[in-house]
Amino acid sequence: MAKLEDLTRGASVKGILPDCLVTVIDVKWYGSAAIELTYKDPAGKPNVVLLYRDREPTLEIGETGRPWSFDGDGKLFRLVSEAHRINLAHLFDPLLAIHTSMVDPLPHQITAVYGEMLPRQPLRFLLADDPGAGKTIMAGLLIKELLIRGDLHRCMIVCPGNLAEQWQDELYQRFQLPFEILTNDKLESARTGNWFAENSLAICRLDKLSRNEDVQAKLANTDWDLVVCDEAHKMSATFFGSEVKYTKRYRLGQLLGQLTRHLLLMTATPHNGKPEDFQLFLALLDSDRFEGRSRDGVHTVDASDLMRRLVKEQLLKFDGTPLFPERRAYTVGYKLSDAEAALYKSVTDYVREEFSRADSLENESRKGTVGFALTILQRRLASSPEAILQSLRRRRERLERRLREEQFLKRGADRHAVGMGYSSPGVSG
Predict the structure, then answer these.
(1) Is 199 exposed, middle or buried (CB count within 10 Å of its CB: 0-12, 13-18, 19+)?
(2) What is the pTM of this model?
(3) Is residue 396 classed exposed, middle or buried when 0-12, 13-18 and 19+ CB atoms within 10 A define those classes?
(4) Tell me, what's the pLDDT at 429?
């Protein structure tokens, strides 16, 4: 702030004209509270203005030097140039997110982020590497790289509830990204009434979003640059005959795909063995391309252009050695005792008898359920005698409970028939 007394001939004054300095030519006082200031603007054009004491807070005496004298503030110049250098750093360092994060990425992580995902605009991708590949690291590198390049301002992580805190810790400790976790208290205390609009870096629990329609209504009024869905196979739908059974989680996946420009799905188990269900899952990425159900023998689902799947045997270090030890399966033989052999024979005979009963069932879905249950019994037998004992004991208790219920219902039906004057098998009226 400058006082009127500081406005002398030759002084450079800021605040007379917007965004520029003017040079004082002459000053004429009117009493002690006002002056008539004659000045010239940077173009050399003279002008006159009447100033009162109430203008003093907006006035400032500027310092000018000779043109090209290099007498400016060196620290300020260095600060500005450094900010500009950082803003353009990604043009000169293609791996800037790696060099500014607390990570030591592996080759498959670098190729996933910089070779597969970053070149795709917009990004619709399924990252399906085996467990242990570091999919969280890949997502963090992608988020930070997009932030540095100015392509991302709002990002949401959707994950199972037990992984929310882990995501928050990893992203802050490794990438210095301050994500906030959605909670009921934060929803209620939001200043605008919509927590999603107030937070540009958010972590949300999958079931919290999928089961609460009020939360989804607020989410639908926002837009995002990137949405990352961890354990994305939970967002599944299933074909039953010609009908599709959509889950709430799948509907949430469809909603998220409409609200974001970039969508990244991450899961180690993308395929459940049913091609039609896998096609429904891929429809979250491209609903037009994977709409409906493919006909056998006509075409197959090809997701190679929007999906990457690496198993543990394909994950290598920089020196070319395997990241994980080689997996070798051996069959170890052992001799059963007499008691164990008798138990094994009894359970096997029981399983074979029940399988034959299951094959005679007309209901195909019921037949599969029975077969699966009996297969579990054999696995329990191979586990330990105690395991099969507990399984058989629980099965017997269920069957006894069901028998008692049937007897109770039959007795009630008989009493009702007697009361109504009808005859029932085994009951004389």
Answers:
(1) buried
(2) 0.65
(3) exposed
(4) 38
Alpha-carbon span 240 to 32, nearest angstrom: 91
Q: What is the C-alpha separation between 362 and 345, in angstroms, rounded?
A: 28
Backbone CA torsion sign across 280, 281, 285, 289 = negative
Is 367 a residue whose pLDDT tops 70?
no
Of the pLDDT bands very low, low, confident and very high (cuts 50, 70, 90), residue 362 is low
Beta bridge partners of 262: 226
- The answer to whether the beta carbons of residues 177 and 201 sit under 8 Å apart is yes
CATH fold of 89-314 reads Rossmann fold (3.40.50)
Query: pLDDT by residue (tens digit) across 33-59?
Result: 999 999 999 888 999 999 999 999 889
Pairing of strands 155-159, 201-205: parallel
Longest CA–CA separation in the chain, Å: 128
pLDDT score at 428: 43
Tokens of 366: 């019921």
Q: What is the DSSP string of 37-68?
A: EEEE-TTS-EEEEEEEGGGGGG-EEE----TT
Tell which CATH classification among 3.80.10, 2.30.30, 2.60.40, 3.30.9 matches the domain 4-62.
2.30.30
